[in-house]
Design goal:
Elements (H helix, E strand, L loop, with lengths): L1 H4 L3 H9 L6 H14 L5 H8 L4 E6 L5 H16 L3 E6 L7 H10 L4 E5 L5 H11 L3 E4 L10 E2 L3 H14 L5 E4 L6 H16 L9 E2 L5 H14 L5 E4 L2 H13 L10 E7 L14 E4 L3
């Protein structure tokens, strides 16, 4: 390749690794030689020489969930722009296989590991990473861990922004729907919602803050009951897009509508709308936390 490009072997190596100060003209000559000779880089051989594999391990709790699917897409795009490949695996919905998956990736010689989900096992995984000498980053919707490299959305700020948006539209009786009390993500979002109500001197009613699973059926039932018992509510913040969709059906059951002259349904932190084959998109506002 060096002979075909008319450069030194070290120059070819620098172009392949993306390191060093190589002129665009020289880089183009090397790349043309690569294409003409049909060269395919052997990453395993390169890792033996330079100590890096160019592969990042990504362990995701559950790819069927929109949060993790979009997070995976975003991380993959960002890493590929840096010349890295992603080795993707699932750690189980409750994170029971996280440690096993981490050990497998470490044995494959990955340059680092990103763990999305199962943050409650963070201390154990952090110790394994330190022992293996593998850089570790957590990607989570919320975290109570200190001293870890972490990618996460600002749940409290998102809820504050959406609550303020509702208040500026004239709403003063605002409820919350969705999430479980044990969820730190929910706690952060509800905290932002409550703090904003207090900031603007608006009433906070604990009975207006309802838990429910991320299920359209449960959200619809909870929304119907909430409005029947508290008909003066004019806006509802929903935990995520699944809850918001169920809440919209709950509005219909309660004889109300979303939008003007009805209850407005908002998501404090959600994802881009996924088209449903059986219904049109409900008129709501979504706060996106893109991956």
């Amino acid at each position: 390749m060096a002979l075909a490009a008319g450069v030194s072997v070290s120059t070819v190596s620098l172009v392949l690794s993306g390191k060093g100060r190589i002129s665009s003209a020289t880089g183009e000559r090397v790349n043309q030689a690569i294409e003409q000779l049909g060269f395919v880089r052997n990453r395993q051989a390169a890792s033996l020489r330079g100590g890096q594999s160019g592969v990042i391990g990504l362990i995701v709790s559950d790819l069927s969930k929109p949060f993790y699917a979009e997070l995976t897409a975003g991380l993959t795009d960002a890493l590929e722009r840096q010349g890295k490949m992603v080795f993707l695996t699932q750690g189980g919905r409750s994170g029971e296989k996280m440690a096993q998956r981490f050990d497998t990736l470490a044995a494959q010689g990955v340059d680092g590991v990103i763990i999305a989900g199962a943050i409650d096992r963070g201390s154990e995984l952090r110790e394994r990473a330190a022992e293996a000498g593998v850089p570790l980053v957590f990607a989570s919707r919320a975290s109570y861990l200190d001293d870890v490299d972490l990618i996460r959305p600002d749940n409290m700020q998102a809820a504050q922004l959406v609550t303020e948006h509702l208040i500026r539209r004239g709403h003063q009786r605002i409820a919350w729907l969705g999430g479980q009390s044990a969820s730190l993500t929910r706690a952060e979002r509800v905290g932002g919602y409550c703090a904003t109500l207090l900031k603007y001197g608006l009433p906070f009613h604990s009975e207006w803050v309802l838990e429910c699973e991320s299920s359209q059926k449960q959200a619809a039932e909870a929304m119907t009951g909430l409005l029947r018992q508290n008909p003066t509510i004019t806006a509802v913040l929903c935990y995520n897009n699944v809850v918001a969709t169920g809440a919209w059906f709950g509005l219909l059951r309660a004889g109300r509508q979303s939008g003007e002259d009805g209850v407005e349904s908002y998501l404090s932190s959600g994802w881009r709308w996924r088209r449903l084959p059986t219904c049109r998109r409900p008129p709501s506002t979504t706060c996106l936390s893109p991956g």
